Amino acid sequence: MSKKRLALVVGGGPAPGINGVISAVTIEALTQQGWDVFGVMEGFKHLVKGDKTQVKPLTVDDVKNVNIKGGSILSTARVNPAKNEQDLQTVLRVFKEMDISYLVTIGGDDTAYSGSQVYKAGGGSIRVAHVPKTIDNDLPLPPSVPTFGFETARQIGVNLVRNLMEDAKTSRRWFFVISMGRAAGHLALGIGKASAATLTIIPEEFRKAPPTLESLCEILVGAIIKRRSKGQDYGVAVLAEGLVEALGEEALVAMGEAQLARYGKIERDPHGHLRMAEVDFGRMIKDQVAQRLKALGISMTLTEKEIGYELRCADPVPFDAEYTRDLGYSAVKFLLSPESAQYGAIISLVDGKMKPLPFETMLDPKTKRMQTRKVDVTGEGYECARRYMIRLDRRDVENPENIQRLAKAGNMDEKTFVERFSKIIDT
Fold first, then answer.
1. Taking each helix axis from N to C terminus, what angle separates 213-229 and 281-295, rounded to the nearest 10 degrees?
2. Is residue 233 annotated as part of the catalytic site, yes or no?
3. Is the pTM of this model over 0.70?
């Protein structure tokens, strides 16, 4: 009887811990189950072309000790084989020709959907387990279960922001830090809260109405004035990049083509997502805030800084190094189970025990993605974060003593101050 064969595919952006999953899957499948293991280079990029030369056999020597290193020994790509039937059938043909019985995909919601379609189109001929990863922590896993890579990204981000905070204090300036987080503010809030940044702004906090460029800038101007009223002309604000998508294309286009051209252009990736990297959100915010401060006669040095790519391939912290080993082992365990003959699944761990989540319960058939896990802004975690931020609140526009002090720091009369900043309270 020929050996069973397993293929590993990594899709989407990098996240700390990918190699840990690859290593755990390979070692468990090779040494404990006696399977052959193949690593597919660059996601589905070559598979959709029918190219088998980029499907490499993996050995224990290939994967030992890589679990503590960042990056991906199989690289990664964002090619979606489910975009058209021909690509999907080509992938299935390659797997059939190579006698692949098991597939482990590693990635976010787009890769999860790709894996689900391989399972569905294969009619059960290929058992599929998907290990979810994203530094954004925005996949709908069970409560309090993080996506792997998040803890490492947060720690590296915190170290960077703490350095910027010391720089801000030393050089008397404000830094506007744009943190990765396309659809949710988990990473930005995690970095801002743990580093004790001056304030953090995330899309989820705008419950009454979507944010506008005006409201974002006014929150920042208000925070600068509040710090200034205390004799502190420096600070660090962390903003989630998802605020760009929350603003929407209409808000960006409303700036006018000539002005928008200063900050890039609107483009979308193959999955329809707004390309955040194409819009220089940090510089846009910096320029808009600078104009408002100048109009108030306030001289302030502002510097924008993006944090994201520095986090994605960092060596995993012990939490992620251990977590990804558990996930990889659990993926193989699921593939061995009777349940894997009935459905493909996303692998999660709850209280240290594997909990496979069937694709059909996790993926929206219309959007072809998992529902986004948002920051719960009604919980104590966010409430605590807001308590320690320096930003205008209701007391600042209702308490006469506060109004007088803040209006003076903002070079405006008290009535103007109240009318202007009451609009951004309790958004």
1. 60
2. no
3. yes
Q: What integer is the mean pLDDT of 72-89?
A: 94
Closest CA to 277 of 244, 302, 254: 244
Model confidence at 271: pLDDT above 80 = no
In the predicted structure, residue 1 carries a pLDDT above the cut 50: no
Q: Which listed residue (87, 109, 110, 136) is catalytic?
A: 136
- The CATH number assigned to the domain holding 204 equals 3.40.50.460
As a whole number of angstroms, the distance between CA 15 and CA 320 comes to 10
* Alpha helices per DSSP H over 314-373: 318-336, 359-362
Q: Region 50-54: what's the mean pLDDT?
A: 95
The rounded distance, in Å, linking the Cα atoms of 65 and 68 is 6
**DSSP bridge partners of 120:** none
Q: Is residue 371 domain-resident?
A: no
Handedness of CA 45, 49, 53, 55 (dihedral sign): positive
Contact of 424 with 216, CB cutoff 8 Å: no
- Which residues have C-beta within 8 Å of that of residue 43, sequence separation ≥ 6? 9, 10, 11, 12, 75, 76, 77, 78, 79, 107, 111
Residue reference for tokens 């010391």: 166
CB-based contacts of 282: which residues, under 8 Å, 6+ apart?
Answer: 176, 177, 178, 239, 304, 305, 306
Helix (H) or strand (E) holding 88: helix 85-97
| Nearest Cα to Cα of residue 356 among 381, 331, 379 | 331
Rounded CA separation 317/17 (Å): 9
- Residues listed for the chain: 427
Q: Got the DSSP string for 201-251?
A: E-GGG--SS---HHHHHHHHHHHHHHHHHTT---EEEEEETHHHHHHHHHH
* Structure-token pair, residue 295: 């109009």
Q: What's the CA gap between 370 and 346, in Å, rounded?
A: 11
Report how many domains make up the chain: 2
Residue 77 lies in a domain: yes
Domain that residue 216 falls in: 153-312+392-424
Token pair 């506007």 in the structure block, residue: 176
In 3-state terms the chain splits into helix, strand, coil percentages (rounded to 5) of: 50, 15, 35
My answer on whether 110 and 210 are in the same domain is no
In a domain, 135, yes or no: yes
367 in a structural domain? no
143 with 161, same domain? Answer: no
